[in-house]
Specification:
- The structure is a single chain.
- By secondary structure, the protein is mainly alpha-helical.
- It has a domain of 41 residues.
- The chain is 79% helix and 0% strand.
- It has two helices and no strands.
- The longest helix is centred in the middle third of the chain and has 62 residues.
- It starts with a helix and ends in a 16-residue tail after the last helix.
Length: 92
């Protein structure tokens, strides 16, 4: 009986190791797929944010265009260009 146990012990240990390796492989594949799905989701969100960033940059350049600022200063703040005699240069 003891001889039989000694004879099959290495086989049982190897079978256990094979089973552990198989389970570890399945777990690693599952984690890999889960992380890949998360990566795809983050890439999609990044792309959406980049499109939004480009839209905001265009909007900012539109709102801050020189002509628009000048128009707003004239219309809403009643600002005007000073007459040449009202301009003084510093450092002369």
């Amino acid at each position: 009986m003891i001889e039989t146990v000694r004879r099959y012990a290495p086989i049982v240990v190897l079978m256990g190791a094979v089973m552990a390796a198989a389970i570890a492989s399945v777990y690693a594949k599952h984690e890999s797929r889960k992380l890949f799905t998360e990566l795809q989701s983050l890439n999609t969100e990044r792309d959406r944010m980049e499109v939004n960033w480009g839209r905001l940059q265009i909007e900012q350049s539109t709102w801050s265009a020189y002509g628009r600022v000048e128009q707003m200063a004239r219309e809403q703040m009643q600002m005007r260009m000073p007459a040449p005699e009202q301009v003084s240069l510093l450092g002369e």
